[in-house]
């Protein structure tokens, strides 16, 4: 197997050496033209006269001026709904082979996002590029002969009319390249088990049959799977079951909040690589070890635009105003949050994916996810993004020597005014409540000037309740579905928060 590992590693290094370096700005210009050319005869392309855009002096500028922004509800109501009525060539040629079901982190009803064969090809190519980028990480040859555990949603997809439906992780896993199937675990039989608890229990029972070198999946669900394997085999850490585990590819959410609790399950350090795979496409991946930022996939099936994340451009529901200005990759700046807008080979056009990002390296087109537009806490001017909330949690972990993998909060009105009401998921945060409240409030005031100003006005302070992390996982299981792309809401509105607090009452 070591010989095989050396061959694979050598092939990856050779491909990396032979692959020309991508110029992100030029690549994006080509992607836009290809998208417009391919879709110009669709209903959408004819409606917005893509042919005219292509012939304009500045296609990117004309495209931005002519096409409005779309969130899911808008593009689905006006365009994608036609696909479910049997129409073809709606926003992309022909009909999609798949629909990705996604409730995201803010809704209860599943979205049905088209996934075309072109998008699957783009995702596969991005995956190959990510594997190729492993040559930048100092991994031993034997790593490349180990098995990879990909924990996502069920690959037993739902047949609907002329297409299949499921979560994007299940769709991509059901389309893995034939040459990878020998390395892929837990294998097709287990991956088709729809019930998440049963699937994880089966993984735990078979775990010692596999030589796992890499893990891939959303941190919260990977953690629960690892705990199940550890408990089933009555060991202290996962490396006593999978001694050759060396890489974890995180995705779906920022890994930072899970770092401490995740590392507690390991027997030795491993390489953590961030990825950004959404229901709408493979957006970015970490390509080098010097940073935990991710490189946008600029030469695939996605064209990116960026709207400065400023209060005057953001509506109360997290959407953006019609007159919000967008810029292209060549004009972005460092230290500025942007709302991410995408147009794709699945027929999403100027689509608000709901995430905010920040550039860490413009020349390399490297980014970090900073939050969600709907999770931006701006009650009485506090202006807190998820990125800033995460930093507050890291501060609490360091201050109290604990792990807080999950949290949620709401700007809730009480008789004496607004408070940021936090629920922290922790096993051993045993400090008294006043100490925790003080540490959290003081950090937010010192780290964010807008929060400090809000505290001098209508924001009275913070309230904190500590519960077990399992309460968060049970909430997700009760409201959505365990595993897959399911993520916890970091910020809730008061109506949803009332449901959350009622749920917590039943668990404590």
UniProtKB/TrEMBL annotation:
Pfam families: GH3, GH3_C, GH3_M. GO terms for molecular function: acid-amino acid ligase activity. The lineage of its organism: Bacteria, Pseudomonadati, Bacteroidota, Flavobacteriia, Flavobacteriales. It comes from Olleya aquimaris. Residues 388-495 form the GH3 C-terminal domain. This is GH3 auxin-responsive promoter. Residues 297-362 form the GH3 middle domain. InterPro entries: GH3, GH3_C, GH3_M. GO terms for cellular component: cytoplasm.
